[in-house]
Amino acid sequence: DGAWPAGTVAYGSAYSGIDVAAAVIHDMSDGDWSYQFASEPMPCRRRVLESAWGDFGLAAERIYHDARATDARREAPVDVFVVTPVCQPFSKRNHTPDLETQARALADAHAALDYVRLARPRIVIVENASAPALVGHMDTIVLGIPDYTWSSAIIDPRDLGGFAARTRCYWVGVAHRRSQ
Q: How many Cβ atoms are within 10 Å of 56's Cβ, its own excluded?
């Protein structure tokens, strides 16, 4: 619907690990993109992010430890923002789900989306586990962000020729255009 940005795509991410999504952005933009900032709590992943994406603009000082930190939440707007909140408390592999841990993970996901509420990136992609206990809550969180049109899909990589049995839910938000 014309939501994909024309020209150089400015990109940011939160909790996306080594950031496979950045490779997709690279491909979709024909290499015409810049990695503006990231948030990743694990030091080894921060080093990998800088090594992998430094040539595309990602600098060590803009790889934040926490997406909820003030500096991360106040980053300049980007065209595409991808966030992958913690999913382990909802994972099928977590054989002893703990409601308190799940509640903390949801609160952290809500706080990590403060950047979206403040900077209003053009396109937002949220990726997480497809557990029913999580999907309903994430629906509520993303639908609570005003001035975005949201859609969601549950995708099993095996349905697309992948080998991993890791069904995920994706929420995609497109910011409403503001009249000038």
A: 15
